[in-house]
């Protein structure tokens, strides 16, 4: 795979609203838990750099406190904002691992190298990753992201067109 774009920002969560009256916010997490947030020295919230003071697990959400956000009104003003990090600050990956952000947008080709579409999204309903392929005719197709069906090679996805619906 080609080198990932390091100038991208990656969304880890979104601010769902204020929590209490002291500036805490409820976060909708896009990852598997608060660990992805708690280890980050620098975050961007709604396009502005903010330092995370504290984060804890909430009831189906996370509860966070940012430096400089000390009232319910200030917390509520962040509602809908993405909580992001720079792509370059993500941990390096082992061979065969990937971040979704590095796959979305990649061109898809068949075994002969002919264009087939573009990866629009990655879905996972528990049985493994599915690539959502945007086809040239505007239709979409979900295919398993498995060896022999959809392979990551040289910055593109080489897929078996028999799996396109």
Describe this structure in words.
The protein contains three helices and 13 strands. It is elongated and about 60 Å long. The protein has 165 residues and is mainly beta. The mean pLDDT is 88. The chain has a seven-stranded antiparallel sheet with strand order 4-3-7-1-2-6-5.
Features:
165 residues; six-stranded mixed beta sheet; elongated; single chain; seven-stranded antiparallel beta sheet; mainly beta
Into which percentage range does the β-strand content fall?
Answer: 35-45%
Give the terminus-to-terminus CA distance. Answer: 26 Å
Radius of gyration, in angstroms, nearest whole number? 19 Å
Going across the major beta sheet, what is the strand order? 4-3-7-1-2-6-5
Largest sheet: 7 strands, antiparallel
Question: What overall geometry do the principal axes of the alpha carbons give?
Answer: elongated
The ordered string of helix (H) and strand (E) elements is EEHEEEEHEHEEEEEE
**Secondary structural class:** mainly beta
Number of beta-strand segments: 13
Which stretches are low in confidence, meaning pLDDT under 50 for 5 or more residues running? none
Mean pLDDT: 88
Helix tally equals 3
Helix content: under 10%
Quick structural gist:
This protein is mainly β and 165 residues long.
Present the secondary structure layout.
Layout: E1 9-19, E2 24-29, H1 35-38, E3 43-45, E4 48-50, E5 52-57, E6 62-66, H2 72-76, E7 82-86, H3 100-103, E8 107-109, E9 115-124, E10 129-134, E11 140-144, E12 150-153, E13 156-159
Parallel strand pairs: 8-13
Antiparallel strand pairs: 1-2, 1-7, 2-6, 3-4, 3-7, 5-6, 8-9, 9-10, 10-11, 12-13
């Amino acid at each position: 795979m080609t080198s990932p774009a390091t100038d991208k920002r990656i969304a880890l969560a979104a601010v769902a609203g204020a929590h209490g009256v002291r500036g805490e916010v409820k976060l909708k997490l896009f990852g598997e838990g608060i660990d992805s947030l708690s280890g980050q020295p620098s975050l961007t919230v709604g396009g502005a750099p903010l330092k995370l003071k504290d984060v804890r697990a909430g009831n189906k959400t996370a509860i966070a406190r940012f430096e400089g956000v000390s009232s319910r009104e200030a917390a509520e003003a962040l509602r809908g904002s993405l909580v992001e990090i720079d792509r370059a600050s993500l941990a390096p990956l082992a061979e065969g691992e990937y971040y979704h952000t590095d796959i979305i947008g990649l061109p898809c080709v068949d075994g002969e190298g002919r264009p087939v579409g573009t990866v629009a999204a990655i879905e996972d309903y528990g049985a493994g990753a599915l690539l959502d392929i945007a086809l040239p005719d505007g239709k979409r197709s979900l295919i398993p992201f498995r060896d022999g069906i959809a392979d990551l090679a040289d910055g593109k996805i080489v897929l078996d067109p028999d799996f396109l619906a």
